[in-house]
Amino acid sequence: MKRIRFAISTCPNDTFAFHAMLERKVDWRGLDFDIQLLDIQTLNEELLAKRLDVAKTSFHAALYLTQDYGVFPSGSALGYGVGPLLLSAKAGTTPIDSSKLTICPGEHTTATLLFHLFYPNTTRLNHVVFSEIMPLLKKGAADFGVCIHEGRFTWQSEGLSLVEDLGSRWEKATHCPLPLGGIIGAWHLGRDVLETVQAVIHESLVYGLDHPSETLPTMRRFAQEFDDSVLMKHVDLYVNDWTRELGEVGERALDELSNRAFEIGLTGDHAKLRLTTSARQR
Fold first, then answer.
1. What DSSP designation does 275 have?
2. Residue 72 DSSP label
3. CATH class of 85-174
4. CB count, 10 Å around CB of 58?
5. Domain spans of the chain?
6. What is the per-residue pLDDT across 107-128, written as a single tens digit (0 to 9) for each?
7. Using CA atoms, how far apart are residues 243 and 232, in angstroms rounded to an integer?
């Protein structure tokens, strides 16, 4: 039995999509998945250290991993209206002062990449776990924060101010959906194993879509926000047709991200994200 070191994030769209895998509601097809749930920056770090076989990652981090990992066609988070929010502790302020501090959810997150794209060389940067960003802003420990996950729906109730929706800015600049993150697999697993993993991922996702209420206890177990309506809003926003299958539009969005990261010097070479298996092969 092939052991697969597999890890996903704790965000609701992942625990929704992989509830069926976590609870063995789908056939693992002869594979032995050793599943961990980690915050997105830890996932990125573990992948950069080559300690995982299959995992969720930011597409920003995936650009540094193209020699060792490919992107699965299913399981990605991308779309319109899904981007991170740039928030401020004080209304009417923007990040233009190098004496100010912006906190981001990790060096290799796509959220941080967007801040570099649209606010280059503005404020000082610090990286914290995503769940700490809004509390730190509320305490006045930072001036700005790039907010992801459930915070997109709760920032107003926390008394924070919106500087800009970075996802909307991406959409206007590129005319593409924003590719946030996806599931990647190590090339060393081989084509047959990668195709089998893809089949399990797809089946788990479909199970969640067919049994949404059944996924709620799993989502609650790991979420920062426990209100069921917020959790399902998160799923409705981040789990869509491109999660089922990236397709041509999804692949074009990945190319756009790669090109723009290279243009501002965030990647050392012009890395291109490749799928583990094509539609023709399936």
1. B
2. -
3. alpha beta
4. 28
5. 2-79+177-263, 85-174
6. 888 999 999 999 999 999 999 9
7. 16
* pLDDT for res 40: 83
Task: State the DSSP H helix or E strand holding residue 180, giving kind and residue range, or none if neither.
Answer: strand 178-186
Which CATH class for the 2-79+177-263 domain? alpha beta
Q: Which two tokens stand for residue 250?
A: 């999804």
Q: Which residues contact 99 (CB under 8 A, 6 or more apart)?
A: 123, 124
Residue 31 bridge partners (DSSP): 2
Same fold, 2-79+177-263 and 85-174: yes
Q: Is 270 in the active site?
A: no
Q: Which residues pair with 104 in a beta bridge?
A: 127
Task: Choose, from 19, 60, 149, 234, the residue flagged as catalytic.
Answer: 149
* 185-211 confidence digits (pLDDT tens): 999 999 999 999 999 999 999 999 999
User: Distance between CA atoms of 72 and 66, rounded to whole angstroms?
Assistant: 12
Site of tokens 């009417």: 92
